[in-house]
Specification:
Chain A: GO terms for molecular function: GTP binding; GTPase activity. The structure holds two protein chains of two kinds. Chain A is an alpha/beta fold. Chain A has helices spanning 2-9, 34-43, 87-91, 106-122, 135-138, 143-160, 175-186, 212-216, 221-224, and strands at 18-28, 56-64, 68-77, 96-102, 127-133, 164-166, 204-205. In chain B, the strands form two sheets. Chain B has a ten-stranded parallel β-sheet with strand order 3-4-5-6-7-8-9-10-11-12. Classes of the chains: A alpha/beta, B alpha/beta. The interface between A and B is medium-sized, with 35 and 28 residues.
């Protein structure tokens, strides 16, 4: 009868998807490849041409999982000194801040010190991640130079308690992994990707770093703060 | 409340001043009859123009004719003729100072030759008047100029009339959340001690001052002055409203004259009686006004008037009636509803709260004939057995109800399922408070299977047989997710259940999300 027809029309109300919003800030010297990392991650495009970022760029990437949508909001700050006063846009409210340096230019690693000092002053809750870029150019360089840079970078990441990743946007090396590490550190999830330690390889070190911060937080926070993982 | 009190204060001042003027007898000024006070002096006179001069005048001293000055001197000075016209006391009472519409009357002296001795005396008197011209016993009361501009005044009075309307519908505000039952309940609802405390204090306060004193201010506006009268009258007659049975009676006696002859009075848009509960059951208070011209009436409201019924003849005339609000009426029964439904083809809104003599029969006849019905409230505290599934099914079948109030009625799961299948898509507000026969098998499952896709407000206070609220919470979360949040008004017990269930669901969701995320980050991607 009517009732049975109606029954077919009415479906159980759909399952409500969880949404996890994560803001990630990208900082570092000019021309280290912040914008290209972001564009590569969100749109999977690499452009050789250099475009200077004026102020802050913003892109979103949504990852659909079975029950959950993860939305990465990437804030990319122009590397020139004059944009330092816009640092709060990238740092405040971010759950993770990625510090980038150019593997072929050691002085950019030097300035990470200053970037970190500034960003940490604004947001000491965010997970720091140290990322060396242009790995595809780096491997062509002198072996001794490679060893030196890798060692210094490791020292930095130890002081910052930050996972260390060498990546290449042009050759798509370790790009996805940066953000997976960020997510794992934010929610204290167990990550089982194997680490890469040897000099000359695209280094990927995360197990030792970035867990002090989450230990300091009260343990059940990760589940309750799920909707808004930012502190 | 600020506006009416302000205006009342103003009115009081005004009226006080007025009465003082009438009491004092001002001698007629003699100035105007002297020969010397020819047009040369007109300037000085118009400067000190005071209405008392014109108002309090002895009849024989007032020239009741129109004179055109023949004096050559005046002709030289004035190119235009000065026209004086006085009609003495036969004119209606002159308006007070503030009336800006007052015609500035300029007088010319009598020019006919007079005997000398008369002139001498006049000269003497004129000088006296001159000497004392600047002396005033009291300052004339001046209104703020804003009250003399009709457009602005119209705006003020419009808001005042809206305010009056609102005051009556105060406890009907649809955008306000229901008051919590206890402080604990408030705490559950607002999840914040400060806010809960604030809300609860407000509840206690309104409980204490529940019978607020109403100041009928729009009516008083009529007696301020002419312009106020002219502006306020249309608003007053558009919305007829009575709070006093005696005034209603008086209006009934006068109504035939008012509506018959003077075309000033048009059909009102709404007719309201407010809390006339003293009227005895046998009182034929409505008889005199049973022939009002109600062809434009859209709203008929008898708010808590237990013993007053709208006259039957009204429904024949009032073809445009859309809203009928008769809460707390003991006299309304099925017979009345059947008769009324024959003529109320445009009815959209029917409020029969606490009309305890209404039963299924009356509601079915309304449902059958009023196809445009969108709102019906049958909530009641006693005799719930008179309204059953029969009404519910009829409303579902024959109308497109948007707002349904069934509080305290004996409806069951079966009736609600039938109603939901037929009309669930239209329903936006649903009140099922105190429907003791409803169980877990109706409303929770109905929302869980999306039978009420447009529901915005759901009231489920004191449903004793409901303890499984899982689907209600799921529905609520889903509505929130799709940006059409649902408000559930419930009692302490159900609010608590909802809170527990919501926490549970959120926790499972969080665990799900975390496991999904760890799976994703460990996925092997060759990117």
């Amino acid at each position: 009868m009517v009732a049975s027809e109606e029954h077919e029309k009415h479906q159980q109300i759909p399952f409500v998807r969880n949404q996890v919003d994560i803001q990630v800030g990208l900082v570092g010297d000019a021309q280290v490849g912040k914008t290209s990392l972001m564009v590569k991650y969100v749109q999977n495009i690499f452009d050789e041409e250099y475009t200077q970022t004026l102020g802050v760029n913003f892109l979103k990437r949504k990852v659909n999982l079975r029950s959950t949508d993860i939305v990465f909001s990437l804030m990319d700050l122009g590397g020139q000194r004059e944009f330092i006063n816009m640092l709060p846009l990238a740092a405040v409210g971010s759950a993770a801040i990625i510090f980038l340096f150019d593997l072929t230019r050691p002085e950019t690693l030097e300035s990470v010190k200053e970037w970190y000092r500034q960003a940490y002053g604004l947001n000491n809750q965010a997970i720091p991640i140290l990322v060396g870029t242009k790995y595809d150019l780096f491997i062509d360089l002198d072996e001794e130079y490679q060893r030196q840079v890798s060692k210094t970078a490791l020292d930095y990441s130890e002081v910052m308690d930050a996972p260390l990743v060498f990546c290449s946007t042009a050759k798509s090396i370790n790009i996805q992994k940066i953000f997976k590490i960020a997510l794992a550190k934010i929610f204290s999830l167990t990550l089982t990707i194997s680490e890469i330690k040897d000099t000359g390889d695209p280094i990927l070190l995360y197990k030792r770093f970035g867990s002090k911060l989450s230990k300091n937080k009260s343990s059940p926070s990760s589940s309750t703060k799920l909707k808004t993982p930012r502190a | 409340m600020r506006l009416p009190t302000l205006i009342n204060k103003y009115i009081n001042n005004k009226r006080g001043h007025d009465s003082q003027i009438t009491d004092s007898i001002t001698p007629p000024p003699m100035k105007k009859f002297s020969r010397e006070s020819s047009p040369n002096e007109r300037t000085s006179r118009s400067r000190s123009a005071s209405p008392t001069k014109y108002r309090r005048r002895h009849p024989y001293q007032v020239p009741k004719h129109v004179t055109i000055s023949k004096d050559t001197k005046s002709l030289q000075l004035n190119t235009t003729h000065t026209v004086a016209f006085y009609e003495g006391l036969s004119t209606p009472v002159e308006s007070p100072v503030t009336t800006p519409e007052r015609i500035n009357i300029v007088t010319t002296p009598l020019t006919s030759p007079r005997p000398d001795f008369y002139d001498k005396e006049l000269n003497f008197r004129t000088s006296l008047v001159k000497n004392f011209a600047d002396l005033k016993l009291q300052q004339p009361f001046q209104t703020h100029p804003i009250f003399r501009i009709p457009e602005i005044l119209d705006n003020i009075i419009k808001h005042l009339s809206l305010h009056e309307k609102e005051a009556i519908n105060l406890n009907e505000n649809p955008f306000k959340r229901r008051a919590p039952e206890t402080y604990q309940h408030a705490l559950l609802l607002y999840k914040d001690e400060v806010k809960a405390k604030k809300v609860w204090d407000e509840v206690l306060k309104t409980k204490r001052n529940s019978n607020f004193v109403y100041e009928p201010s729009l009516y008083n506006c009529l007696s301020v002055n002419k312009i106020w009268y002219r502006v306020a009258l249309p608003y007053l007659q558009k919305e007829l409203m009575f709070r006093d049975a005696n005034k209603l009676k008086r209006f009934g006696e006068l109504s035939k004259g008012i509506y018959g002859k003077k075309k000033k009075f048009t059909s009102p848009n709404s007719f309201t009686l407010y809390k006339l509960h003293q009227v005895a059951p046998g009182d034929q208070i409505m008889e005199d006004i049973s022939t009002l011209p109600l062809q434009n009436v859209k709203t008929l409201q008898f708010y808590i008037c237990p013993n007053i019924l709208p006259p039957r003849s009204w429904f024949h005339v009032a073809q445009n009636l859309q809203k009928v609000i008769l809460p707390g009426n003991r006299k309304i029964n099925d017979r009345f509803l059947i008769e009324a439904s024959l003529n109320l083809t445009n009815l959209k809104y029917l409020d029969l709260r606490a009309c305890e003599n209404v039963s299924d029969v009356g509601i079915v006849s309304i449902a059958l004939r009023c196809k445009k019905l969108e709102f019906i409230n049958l909530g009641r505290h006693s005799r719930g057995e008179l309204i059953t599934d029969v009404s519910l099914v009829a409303l579902g079948k024959y109308t497109n109800i948007v707002t349904l109030g069934m509080a305290g009625c004996n409806i069951t799961d079966n009736g609600l399922w039938d109603f939901a299948q037929r009309n669930g898509d239209n329903v936006k507000r649903l009140s099922l408070n105190n429907c003791k026969l409803l169980t877990n098998f109706s409303i929770p499952y109905l929302v869980g299977f999306n039978y009420f896709p447009n529901l915005a407000v759901l009231e489920i206070k004191n449903l004793v047989n409901i303890d499984d609220v899982k689907w209600l919470v799921k529905f609520m979360l889903w509505k929130k997710y799709s940006n059409h949040p649902l408000l559930i008004e419930s009692c302490h017990r159900i609010t608590k259940l909802l809170g527990i269930e919501e926490k549970k669901i959120k926790k499972t969701n969080a665990i799900c999300a975390l496991s999904d995320m760890s799976e994703w980050i460990n996925e092997d991607e060759s990117l």
